């Protein structure tokens, strides 16, 4: 049976995790360029862990410029099985208040200036992302959050915007009132789509920092207010992460939702038409089926 290896992608305000045994920052090279930073590896309760700061230590990459493909490829190359994305977000719902966590299950992708797939000319593939997050992993995140005393909401739709500017009031109103979105951020797409292409289970924990700009009783969103909430959220996120190994266990059975078999019927390009150079770049992501 495969061994569980849990990766945490830390968003704004989360540039490391604590409590790892034998912690080591390792450099991982990928055919898609360098990941956002070195990756912190180690074990927690006997389970292998990897931590990647999405924006790099010191917050050097903007949401548009995060090397999403290199990040997911690097985690796959490290034999990660489960990815937990932890991100700051704005809330469109009164009851999802700053300081609360939301285990997101759906996304609307409004990003437009990012590479969104590992596949293309030379090897075309279409994976199913109807349910882009793994419920088994979402269950673990919810449970770990509750144990850590965090107010957590299960399920919600995350609007992924390009940024880096926040939304206009008109945009915020449309996302909230017409599109039924619950939270907004700038980074979970294409990250979630790429994790599915790489056959990784993916869950997203969105940490509410603000009410974006729609709420009549709260000021418009700005980074100073976000950072004030982020510091407390980051501590809670670290507590949540510590609960994950015991919940997920060391032995990794096949994902009951099929995340780890997403490529079974996805590649359309005929074997004799596949470009060897493209296939070489896909060694980690799609090696299982190539
Ligand atoms: C801190 S303000 C906006 C910034 O925060 C979020 O980052 P992440 O998703 O990596 O936690 C948001 O998406 C923006 O990138
Ligand atoms: N209101 C907001 N919009 C987009 N990204 C965010 N990250 C934190 N708050 C946000």
UniProtKB/TrEMBL annotation:
<feature type="site" description="Important for substrate specificity">
    <location>
        <position position="167"/>
    </location>
</feature>
<dbReference type="GO" id="GO:0006166">
    <property type="term" value="P:purine ribonucleoside salvage"/>
</dbReference>
<feature type="binding site">
    <location>
        <begin position="210"/>
        <end position="212"/>
    </location>
    <ligand>
        <name>substrate</name>
    </ligand>
</feature>
<feature type="binding site">
    <location>
        <begin position="54"/>
        <end position="55"/>
    </location>
    <ligand>
        <name>phosphate</name>
    </ligand>
</feature>
<keyword id="KW-0808">Transferase</keyword>
<dbReference type="GO" id="GO:0005829">
    <property type="term" value="C:cytosol"/>
</dbReference>
<dbReference type="GO" id="GO:0019509">
    <property type="term" value="P:L-methionine salvage from methylthioadenosine"/>
</dbReference>
<dbReference type="InterPro" id="IPR035994">
    <property type="entry name" value="Nucleoside_phosphorylase_sf"/>
</dbReference>
<feature type="domain" description="Nucleoside phosphorylase">
    <location>
        <begin position="5"/>
        <end position="243"/>
    </location>
</feature>
<dbReference type="InterPro" id="IPR000845">
    <property type="entry name" value="Nucleoside_phosphorylase_d"/>
</dbReference>
<comment type="similarity">
    <text>Belongs to the PNP/MTAP phosphorylase family. MTAP subfamily.</text>
</comment>
<feature type="binding site">
    <location>
        <position position="12"/>
    </location>
    <ligand>
        <name>phosphate</name>
    </ligand>
</feature>
<feature type="binding site">
    <location>
        <position position="186"/>
    </location>
    <ligand>
        <name>substrate</name>
    </ligand>
</feature>
<comment type="subunit">
    <text>Homohexamer. Dimer of a homotrimer.</text>
</comment>
<keyword id="KW-0660">Purine salvage</keyword>
<dbReference type="InterPro" id="IPR010044">
    <property type="entry name" value="MTAP"/>
</dbReference>
<protein>
    <recommendedName>
        <fullName>S-methyl-5'-thioadenosine phosphorylase</fullName>
        <ecNumber>2.4.2.28</ecNumber>
    </recommendedName>
</protein>
<comment type="function">
    <text>Catalyzes the reversible phosphorylation of S-methyl-5'-thioadenosine (MTA) to adenine and 5-methylthioribose-1-phosphate. Involved in the breakdown of MTA, a major by-product of polyamine biosynthesis. Responsible for the first step in the methionine salvage pathway after MTA has been generated from S-adenosylmethionine. Has broad substrate specificity with 6-aminopurine nucleosides as preferred substrates.</text>
</comment>
<dbReference type="Pfam" id="PF01048">
    <property type="entry name" value="PNP_UDP_1"/>
</dbReference>
<comment type="pathway">
    <text>Amino-acid biosynthesis; L-methionine biosynthesis via salvage pathway; S-methyl-5-thio-alpha-D-ribose 1-phosphate from S-methyl-5'-thioadenosine (phosphorylase route): step 1/1.</text>
</comment>
<feature type="binding site">
    <location>
        <position position="187"/>
    </location>
    <ligand>
        <name>phosphate</name>
    </ligand>
</feature>
<keyword id="KW-0328">Glycosyltransferase</keyword>
<dbReference type="GO" id="GO:0017061">
    <property type="term" value="F:S-methyl-5-thioadenosine phosphorylase activity"/>
</dbReference>
<feature type="site" description="Important for substrate specificity">
    <location>
        <position position="223"/>
    </location>
</feature>
<feature type="binding site">
    <location>
        <begin position="87"/>
        <end position="88"/>
    </location>
    <ligand>
        <name>phosphate</name>
    </ligand>
</feature>
């Amino acid at each position: 049976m495969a061994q569980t290896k849990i990766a945490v992608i830390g968003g704004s305000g989360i540039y490391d995790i604590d409590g790892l045994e034998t912690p080591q920052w390792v450099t991982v090279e990928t055919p898609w360029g360098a990941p956002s930073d070195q990756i912190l590896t180690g074990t927690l309760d006997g389970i292998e862990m990897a931590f990647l700061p999405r924006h790099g230590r010191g917050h050097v990459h903007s949401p548009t410029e995060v090397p999403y493909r290199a990040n997911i490829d690097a985690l796959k190359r490290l034999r990660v099985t489960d990815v937990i994305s932890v991100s700051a977000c704005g809330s469109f719902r009164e009851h999802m208040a700053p300081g609360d966590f939301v285990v997101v299950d759906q996304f609307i992708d409004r990003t437009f200036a990012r590479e969104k797939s590992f596949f293309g000319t030379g090897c075309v593939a279409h994976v199913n992302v109807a349910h882009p997050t793994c419920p088994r992993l979402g269950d673990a995140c919810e449970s770990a959050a509750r144990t850590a005393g965090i107010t957590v909401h299960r399920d919600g739709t995350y609007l992924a915007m390009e940024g880096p500017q926040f939304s206009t009031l008109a945009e915020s109103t449309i996302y909230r009132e017409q599109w039924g979105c619950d939270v907004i951020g700038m980074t979970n797409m294409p990250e979630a789509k790429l994790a599915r292409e790489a056959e990784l289970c993916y869950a997203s924990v969105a940490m509410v920092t603000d009410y974006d700009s729609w709420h009549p009783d709260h000021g418009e969103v700005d980074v100073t207010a976000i950072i004030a909430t982020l510091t407390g959220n980051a501590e809670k996120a670290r507590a949540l992460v510590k609960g994950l190994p015991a919940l997920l266990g060391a032995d990794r059975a096949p994902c009951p939702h099929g995340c780890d078999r997403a490529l079974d019927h996805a590649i359309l390009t005929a074997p004799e038409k596949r470009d060897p150079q493209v296939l070489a770049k896909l060694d980690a992501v799609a090696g299982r089926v190539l």
